[in-house]
Every structure is written in C-alpha cells, then in structure tokens.
Specification:
Length: about 300
C-alpha cells in the first residue's frame, strides 16, 4: 500500500510539473516600462505650442490637458488578495492554492461566507476537472475498487467518485467544520528557517491550526472533517459487494463490498496523507516558484543591469 501511495504521489507531482511548464510558457509577465519608454506622453505645454492660432484666437479652447499617469503598483494584486483574506496563487502555476498566504502578517479571520466562497472557487476550478481525470486514470490502471469494472463506464464511475470524494472533503475541512468550530482553514507559510524545521511545521498544521480568535487549537476541522467525509463517501456511493459473471459460463465470482469500516479508515488515511504532503509542497512552493521563474528568465536570454 505504501508503494502504491508513493507511486501515486510521484505521478501527481509529474503532472503538476508538466502543467506548470505549459502554463508558465503561456504566461509572460508584462513589462510596464516598455510602454512608457516607447510611447512618451506629450506635456500640456508642448501641445499648446504646437497650435499657434490657439493663443491668438480666444474663441478656440486650448486642448485638454493630459492627466499624468499614476504609477503602477506591481504588488496591487497581492495586496488586494491579502485584504480579502485569500490569495490567487496556484501550485505549479496550475492547481488552486487560494487558502495559502505568503508573508501574510496580521490578517482578519474569514467569515463563514468567505470560507464557503473560496472552497467553491477552488473545488470547481477548470484545472481540477483535469486533475481528477488524471487520478481516475491511475485508479483505472490499478483496478482499484473492482466493483466499478473496466471500460469507459468504470472510468466514469471512478471519475465521479474521485470528484465527489475531493469536493466533500474540501467543504468539510475548509468550510463546514471551520465555520461551525470557528477555525481558520488557511495555511500560513513560514518561509524561513531550515528545511527540517519548515517541513515539520507544515506537517503539524494538519494537527494544529489557528482559531478565528488567533489562538492555536487542535485542528478538529481537518481530522474530524476528514473522517466524516470519508465515512459519507464510503457508505454512500462506493461499490457494494456483488456477484459478477466470469469468462466461464454459469460461474459467478463475488467482489467484496467497499463499504466497510476498514475501507473508510483507508480512505481517510489516504486523504490525510495527501493533505499532509500538499502542505509541505505549499510551504516550499515560493522557493520553487522563484527558482522556476529565474530559470525561465535565464533561458530567455534576458540580461539584467544594475539599474533594473
């Protein structure tokens, strides 16, 4: 089971890296200095001297004065994101990472409406549909939950199951339980310290979280919310035990039910493991992002000067 988990994690990270390269290649940061250097704005005095008849004829109005452009705030997007209590960040430039804050400082707690809103925005992001398709392909190849069988019908059932499992868990751990218990579902990156210290900090956030009052609490939203979501999914739509036909005529084989307590514990443990690993990735994602951006800048042949 551990080997399968490691293989799934490696495959997921490979997909995330490939998505990041595709999205990173399509998103080229704009240079705000280019327009100001290539298209200089004429001053009002220059425009007035271009029309000598305007000064002689008082009936002709002077051309309207051009308002000076306001300086561009390159951090406007980040500041507005912090003011709203969430971010617009994406892991590997693709996967939603809206509940992670970098260098947040003191931010107000999220309201219940904001918690449900950000979870909805992340759960139904277009990239998520591709992500669950990838996970369903892995489950199809491993023939997990044999009651779904193979073929496109089995793939569709696995896709619906993965999508429902992830969505239910997102709402339980990120919106419902945090709203009822008044806990903060966000992850606040440490961003400094040794690799070991930051790793243990990230892993501990599934056990320790902040309340809306700013005090540390047991992360009941993650632990209890994850258990409840696993129980709901396992006993609601996962396959029951049944007899199926075999290649031998008249011979049936029994496929055990997945609606068992042991399978519920397995589903919860898998979700908890993925969530813990994701927190570690979130902690080091700013470092990875800076490295990717720097590498892309060097590959583009951009030469920076001290004045830049």
């Amino acid at each position: 089971m551990f080997i399968k988990f490691v293989v799934n994690v490696a495959a997921c990270l490979a997909l995330a890296v490939s998505l990041s390269m595709v999205c990173g290649a399509q998103t080229t940061p704009a240079n705000p200095e280019a327009s100001s250097t290539t298209q200089p704005q004429a001053s009002p005095q220059t425009q007035q001297t271009q029309d000598p008849t305007a000064a002689k004829d008082p009936t002709k109005g002077n051309p309207p004065a051009i308002q000076p452009q306001q300086p561009t705030d390159k951090t406007k997007g980040g500041q507005s994101a912090n003011q709203s209590g969430t971010s617009k960040d994406r892991l590997f430039f693709a996967l939603p990472n809206f509940l992670t804050l970098e260098n947040a400082g003191h931010v107000p707690p999220l309201t219940a409406r904001q918690k449900f809103g950000v979870v909805t925005r992340g759960s139904f992001d277009p990239v998520i549909f591709v992500w669950y398709g990838f996970l369903s392909g892995i489950a199809q190849a491993e023939n997990s939950e044999p009651g779904f069988r193979q073929g496109w019908g089995g793939f569709g059932k696995r896709y619906a199951t993965n999508f429902a499992d992830g969505t239910i868990e997102n709402y339980m751990t990120g919106a419902i339980f945090p709203s009822v218990l008044r806990q903060d579902p966000r992850y606040f990156q440490m961003g400094h310290g040794s690799f070991t210290h930051r790793t243990f900090y990230a892993m501990s956030r599934n056990i320790v979280t902040l309340g809306d009052n700013g005090k540390k609490q047991f992360n009941c939203s993650e632990v209890c919310g994850g258990m409840l979501s696993a129980a709901i999914s396992t006993y609601s739509y996962h396959p029951k035990g049944r007899y199926v036909t075999t290649s031998t005529p008249g011979v049936l084989t029994y496929i055990p039910s997945d609606r068992t307590l042991s399978n519920t514990a397995k589903v919860w443990a898998t979700q908890y493991g993925y969530d813990t690993l994701t927190l570690v990735v979130k902690e080091f994602w700013p470092d990875i992002r800076r490295s990717l951006v720097k590498h892309r800048s060097n590959s583009d042949g951009k030469v920076t000067t001290p004045s830049e």
